Amino acid sequence: xxxxxxxxxxxxxxxxxxxxxxxxxxxxxxxxxxxxxxxxxxxxxxxxxxxxxxxxxxxxxxxxxxxxxxxxxxxxxxxxxxxxxxxxxxxxxxxxxxxxxxxxxxxxxxxxxxxxxxxxxxxxxxxxxxxxxxxxxxxxxxxxxxxxxxxxxxxxxxxxxxxxxxxxxxxxxxxxxxx
Length: 179
Hints:
By secondary structure, the chain is an alpha+beta fold. It has helices spanning about 120-125, 155-165, 165-170, 175-179, and strands at about 30-40, 45-50, 55-60, 65-70, 75-80, 95-100, 110-115.
């Protein structure tokens, strides 16, 4: 049988596939990181937005001073709308980190520009681009405390064994010797 070189089965489809590492999109002056709280349906989400502090250098009497232009704030429960170009291309779930753009004409609405995957979020954390804020903290790292209140539960094995009866305890000793 001749070798198939011209076309045919799908086994040749990914033969020369090279994974291209994409650059992670970052924020700029008008774009901020947000965390999804709730899905509202129809491409709408409820998000918490972290807006960092912005300082500007101003020259006054030959002295350079830094003036705070925008104070740091967290806007909670903002209505976020998914941009049309990423509507069907990315999956956004509760707890995901997204990049949003504020609207000038509507204060309570923002637009989702980019949805980060878990790998991208880890990359942003390693590069220290993701701001340190309580809304971006992972709940995975927290330890589980099995103690009730502040006292540890101690099991008294003598009480447990005295109430427990095994099936072999119900058989008389002379029948066990005969077996």
